[in-house]
Recover the amino acids of this structure.
């Protein structure tokens, strides 16, 4: 279908042209085709990032096609046959399931909107506000710290049933929902939620529109191909402008977007919305907006706007959907069903995001957003989920959300609870039953599932089984986050989520030695739960060092230690997590020999050290011929290599992108030992590393800054002082967005300076991008500081 589409889109655009309108084709594939066949004017811009996403999706469908081709295998054929002949009852069950996440910039109202969703679906009896006067706090912010600070720290899962009116009938939908944090420091929570969800609601503030963190969330949604609807919240605020937010989705996020509603009244007098698909006015009534009143009478003051925006919606859909393009070309007015079907197709194929609007805090227009979740976001059978078949050279296989197929699930989140480890699992295929034995595809270990629960924030409901396409949590299943579970029949494994590198570290110790046991317990727990939180002990200073995504991230763990484990801690200054590497190949021939009286030490290692070429993992290789070093000793060499990589010779930070090859050596009959080979390797490592022009690497952060246009000069000045590389600047009618790479080291204190330079109106977000060589001056300072600290320690 997609391959045929560009021709239609061309037609739709040509129609616009013939009526004097500007050529506005948003389909990137079409743009590329047209550009190559000179159909577009040369000035028409081809939006490359969007095109790339689209290509990657096409690539994925190609992978699925390959799966179908390979299906000559009988077991795979069985699986494919099931896809084609889905049992109607099963198909109906799935069509009523939605797995969705709510993601957005900080403070956009995710938790406030989720609280309304839970209230309107009958999951909670009353509404409590984030930082509300009753001091109870919202349901999904269950941690004390979240309630006090009014921020979400951990994503929370819940489920609810929404009864939707459809053609005069009531249709019940089952919604699994995950509310995610907005702060970039807790970004892993968004990553893992989006990895397993089928769709998302992207919330935007009606005043601020697309903000820096919205751009990060957009990137994450694209990473996992998650279709989204957008909800412009805070329509009750002064300066609310949903159409500005829509323009920004189009221009900054480069995803075609159009309003499905227009507001009736604004700011203080925001009363409700006009549904542009059905052309009905929708109002909320009742103490908490629980009653929906629909009216065919559209208030006169919004009639013209509603007409104009409905036409815009249809035009945008014609640009991204083939069937709508046909109708548009023929000049036929589409029916409600045709519009809804086009929105659904375009949203699921990631070519469009429908935009709804309302005010969660003022209890307005949240229910239509729930209807849109059911109408436009995919059910589990409409999302292509692939696993890799280890028994067939990791060939991709399509998983089918069908209860009677062999079970495949992905553990996406771990949480320590009073009853032991709680593992959140998304069931992609088959049924997970209480008492069933499952296999961990990574460790090949069998484990019995003693208890299955459905999570409702911090409460749980026990269930005997969970069907395909659903989300649950299990007790007593030991695993790591990202492990695949199967019933043992299939050799399937699923790709895990993206885990960003921690970039900030600080030393930490309990104030009182009596708390050491609790301190270790807490550290172990936090590390298991959060892959972006790491702990290690520096062997020289014997300090415990914690690393994470930012100062807030680490502060929260220090605070949780105090509250949940009653351990008060002392912490050092936050430090950048530098890395070190070699830049030149250095051969070595190192002999460790101590043979003066008693048992001696003897080990000779010969080989070379060199950069791996990519600033990523380190590599150890043995190329011994003729058995000059035995397997046992080579194993010890490898251990020595990895120990050296943990603490580099230059600064004591981890080594990156370094390879060591051992291709010769010598052993002594009595004096050689594993310890001697390990030590010899470490000594050779140190010598070669220092001779190989070592370099300090610093983390570079992908930084997005948004601010009103008048402050652009100030911000560029701030960034120049920090030697940032500015990649792109998008200037809108009021605000601009700037994309830059900045070294983390230069960004300490940036938020205060940004506030001062923009009268508090600028905001920024940072995300780790990659490691880059540190400037020579900084490198010299860091090395000198490290050497001084070493010398001081030796004097003691
Ligand atoms: N005026 C107005 N304020 C709102 C609305 N929705 C939420 N807020 C307020 O915005 C603040 C943030 O709301 P939250 O629901 O915590 O936002 P969030 O996106 O979940 O926050 P994080 O998860 O910490 O990023 C709170 O003070 C809310 O009361 C709205 O519709 N109108």
């Amino acid at each position: 279908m997609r391959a045929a589409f560009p021709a239609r889109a061309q037609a739709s655009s040509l129609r616009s042209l013939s009526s004097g309108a500007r050529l506005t084709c948003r389909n990137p594939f079409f743009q590329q085709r047209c550009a190559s066949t000179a159909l577009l004017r040369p000035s028409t811009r081809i939006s490359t990032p969007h095109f790339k996403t689209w290509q990657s999706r096409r690539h994925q469908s190609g992978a699925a096609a390959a799966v179908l081709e390979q299906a000559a295998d009988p077991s795979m054929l069985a699986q494919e046959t099931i896809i084609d002949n889905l049992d109607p009852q099963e198909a109906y069950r799935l069509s009523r399931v939605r797995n969705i996440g709510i993601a957005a910039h900080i403070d956009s109202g995710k938790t406030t909107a989720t609280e309304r969703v839970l209230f309107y679906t009958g999951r909670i009896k009353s509404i409590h506000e984030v930082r509300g006067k009753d001091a109870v706090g919202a349901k999904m912010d269950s941690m004390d710290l979240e309630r006090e600070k009014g921020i979400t720290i951990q994503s929370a899962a819940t489920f609810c049933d929404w009864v939707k009116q459809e053609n005069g009938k009531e249709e019940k939908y089952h919604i699994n929902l995950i509310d995610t944090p907005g702060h970039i420091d807790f970004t892993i929570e968004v990553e893992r939620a989006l990895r397993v969800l089928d769709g998302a609601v992207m919330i935007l503030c009606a005043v601020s529109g697309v903000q820096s963190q919205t751009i990060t969330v957009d990137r994450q949604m694209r990473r996992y191909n998650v279709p989204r609807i957008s909800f412009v919240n805070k329509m009750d605020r002064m300066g609310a402008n949903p159409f500005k937010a829509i323009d920004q989705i189009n221009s900054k996020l480069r995803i075609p977007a159009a309003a499905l509603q227009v507001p009736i009244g604004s700011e203080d007098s925001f009363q409700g919305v006009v549904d542009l698909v059905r052309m009905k006015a929708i109002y909320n009534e009742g103490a908490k907006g629980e009653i929906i009143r629909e009216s065919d009478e559209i208030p006169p003051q919004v009639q013209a706007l509603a007409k104009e925006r409905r036409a815009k919606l249809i035009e945008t859909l014609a640009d991204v959907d083939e069937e709508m393009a046909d109708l548009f070309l023929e000049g036929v007015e589409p029916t409600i069903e045709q519009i809804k079907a086009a929105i659904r197709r375009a949203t699921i194929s990631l070519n469009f995001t429908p935009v709804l609007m309302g005010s969660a805090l003022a209890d307005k227009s949240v229910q239509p957003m729930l209807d849109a979740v059911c109408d436009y976001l995919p059910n589990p059978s409409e999302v292509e989920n692939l696993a890799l078949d280890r028994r067939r050279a990791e060939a991709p296989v399509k998983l089918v959300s069908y209860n009677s197929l062999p079970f495949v699930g992905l553990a996406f989140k771990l949480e320590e609870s009073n009853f032991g480890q709680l593992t959140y699992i998304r069931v992609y295929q088959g049924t997970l039953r209480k008492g069933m034995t499952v296999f961990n595809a990574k460790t090949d270990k069998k484990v019995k599932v003693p208890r299955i629960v459905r999570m409702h924030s911090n409460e749980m409901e026990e269930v005997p089984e969970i069907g395909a396409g659903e989300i649950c949590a299990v007790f007593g299943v030991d695993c790591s986050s990202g492990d695949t579970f199967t019933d043992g029949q299939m050799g399937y494994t699923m790709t895990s989520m993206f885990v960003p590198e921690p970039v900030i570290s600080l030393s930490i110790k309990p104030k009182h030695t009596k708390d050491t046991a609790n301190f270790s317990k807490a550290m172990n727990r936090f590390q298991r739960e959060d892959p972006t939180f790491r702990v290690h002990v520096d062997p020289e200073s014997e300090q415990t060092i914690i690393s994470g995504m930012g100062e807030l991230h680490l502060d929260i763990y220090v605070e949780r230690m105090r509250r949940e484990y009653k351990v008060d801690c002392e912490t050092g200054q936050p430090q950048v997590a530098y890395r070190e590497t070699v830049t030149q190949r250095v051969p070595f021939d190192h002999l460790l020999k101590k043979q003066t009286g008693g048992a001696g030490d003897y080990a000779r290692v010969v080989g070379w050290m060199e950069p791996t070429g990519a600033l990523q993992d380190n590599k150890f290789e043995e190329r011994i011929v003729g058995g000059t070093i035995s397997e046992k000793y080579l194993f010890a060499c490898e251990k020595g290599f990895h120990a050296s990589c943990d603490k580099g010779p230059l600064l004591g930070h981890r080594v990156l992108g370094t390879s060591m090859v051992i291709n010769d050596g010598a052993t002594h009959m009595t004096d050689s030992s594993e310890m001697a080979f390990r030590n010899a390797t470490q000594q050779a490592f140190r010598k070669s590393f220092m001779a190989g022009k070592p370099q300090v690497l610093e983390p570079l952060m992908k930084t997005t800054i948004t601010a009103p246009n008048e402050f652009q000069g100030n911000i560029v000045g701030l960034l120049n002082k920090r030697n940032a590389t500015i990649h792109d600047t998008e200037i809108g009618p009021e605000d601009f967005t700037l994309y830059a790479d900045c070294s983390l080291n230069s960004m300490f204190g940036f938020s205060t300076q940004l506030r001062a330079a923009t009268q508090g109106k600028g905001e920024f977000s940072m995300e780790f991008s990659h490691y880059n060589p540190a400037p020579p001056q900084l490198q010299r300072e860091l090395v000198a500081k490290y050497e001084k600290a070493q010398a001081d320690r030796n004097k003691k």
The first strand starts at residue 97 and ends at 104. The pocket of guanosine-5'-triphosphate is lined by residues 104, 106-112, 129-131, 150-152, 181-182, 233-234, 236-237, 359-362 (CB under 6 Å). The chain has five domains: 87-376, 385-494, 504-577, 580-689, 696-778.
